[in-house]
User: What shape does this take?
Amino acid sequence: MMLGVAEKKNPLGPAGELTRQTVRTLRLRRNLQYKQISEALAAVGRPIPTLGLSRLEDGDRRVDVDDLVALSLVFDLPAAGFLLPGSYREGQQIEVAPGHMMRAEDAWRKVGGDEGWPRKGLTAEDGVRLAAVLAPIGDAVRAALAAGATPGEIRAWVDNVIKAAVVSDDQ
Assistant: This one.
């Protein structure tokens, strides 16, 4: 141990580290400021101040279960998507708890449910194509947030778009 640097009593485990990285990655990819995320979290009933978000990304603030649910709502990502890698090779071993390794697909079934995420039958290439197709929607959501729309208003708008698409597919 270095002089003057205190060792953490209970350092982040693999899931905490991945959650920290995922929040940072999503914020940067979506070009969001801490203030925007903080406001969106407050809108879903789980305020985290901007300093708290910065500390979370730096690994100096832990994410509790209620934080995880709120982050899942704000970023529209299943909670398991913060805890486990989003892409992996079949049979790949991942660390799910300190010193506990298991196959990634088994971890997804245990943490993400039977279906898990990524969805069965989708390859990494499918995920990249889907992300490219959905990117304009993400841009529209960011623009709506910047224009003052609330996450609830945006969710209602997206739900209506999906309903209209389903109706047109049924005809």
User: Anything to note?
Assistant: The helical segments are 14-29, 34-43, 50-58, 65-75, 80-83, 104-112, 124-146, 151-170.
